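>> received
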Amino acid sequence: MKHIFRLTLITTGLAACTAALSVIANPGMSDYERWRAATQQEFQSYLDENDKAFIGFLKQRWEPVDTESGEEEDKAPKPTEIPEAPPADTPTDAPDTTAKEPTPVVTVPVSTPTPTPTPTRLPENTTPETAPRKVRPAPQITGPAANLDFYGHALRLPYNKAMPRAFSSKPSSDAIATAWEALARSDFKPALEQLKATKTSLLLSDWATARLVSDYAQAVTRNADSRIMLSWFMLVKLGYDARLAYNDRLYLLMPADDDVYGVTYFTLGGERYYALPLNGDVRIAGKVYTYGKQHETASRPVAFKMPERFNGEGAIRKRTLSYQEGDKVVDIVVTYPVEQINYLNSMPQLNLPRYPILDLPAATRAELTKQLQPLLQGHSEEVAVNRLLNFVQNAFEYQTDEQQFNAENYLFPLETLHYSASDCEDRAALFSLLVHDLLSLPVVLLDYPGHVAAAVEFTGRVNGDSIVYNGRQYTVTDPTYINARAGMTMPQFAGQSPDVVEVF
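>> returned
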């Protein structure tokens, strides 16, 4: 037996030397190719200590956990018909000396939205346009590679032969451990490094990164379980606390730094792990099996509280928003990348404060500012706010989410500019962003049962309804109550105490 072992070592050593000599003898190879060829055997056999420990843990018995249906809030029905306030007289910038004393409202904890997936629906008054797509130089890849169209960004990412068959067994702890080991022994590092580089160059958020990994896995694998397996492996290698679970199939779950709604989850160690909709329907019910101890390098949740900087590219859509300002018709033209709408559409439903703070694409924001700013210049804060109210109240058709999407669906400001219609929380988010950007005034959201409005902190006294929150006075501003000015509460919510949602 000892002679056989020695012979094996000699044979292996000779093979490695032969491989190294062949690399040296081939002057046409790049430095990367020489390094790749010389270390090929190492890629296929090396396991770091964290992977060894993790594989050993995965082979142990997985524990059953109960999944919970996604939570929903504010089930109160929204108004299907919106009242109209009486038309205002010609506004004046003179101070109002008859201002009423504000009525303080005691606030309670911040409310959160009822979430659902968002179907895509294009408004009728839009015009598609084209823009040249920016194609980044493809990395020097010698082996197989996946070509991705990631929200208008053309990407080319390498993969190896182990990835397409990442998982082809009936789910079990042993099968999952074996699949992880196969991936860990494969040449996965070029793909991982390219994913990291793409994350940096495209300013990807955690959600966008998870989407990229899922799209990459879908492009290179042959079945759904293989896609989930590869996504899990890559996300863990990127440092995320991604966790695998199974019953008759595999599921990928991840924790978040904020509440996520309408998404199935289970709780492990006091942490919620969500079956986030990275690709396709992931709804699960009942028990699933998962492991308790995570990979030592994986601890990061998906951060939805961080500002989004990623923007899609490609085709540009133009929309004209028309409304009446006094005796004149005002046309506001907005343009935006369609792929950005598709990206926002991919996100799960989040807490209400997440929506106003997501900025518009730079070009969209610039052109909107260029058109709205002249309408506000030279006027008092009150008149300027009323003009922004008029724009949001009357430039958009009102429909509840149930009417437009057949389910509750909060919209980001860009989505409100895009879709045919909007309801109260969508308008409140857009209005708040405009007040913050154009007037630099503090603004909060007012969350009533079945309705969301806003309130602005003026530097001077303004007549009408107001609240006191954290010692500061905010005047009610409702971008859904048609023709309502600052200080006017929608009649059916008068006298109610809303939750106050801080945004800016």
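>> The longest helix spans residues 2-24.
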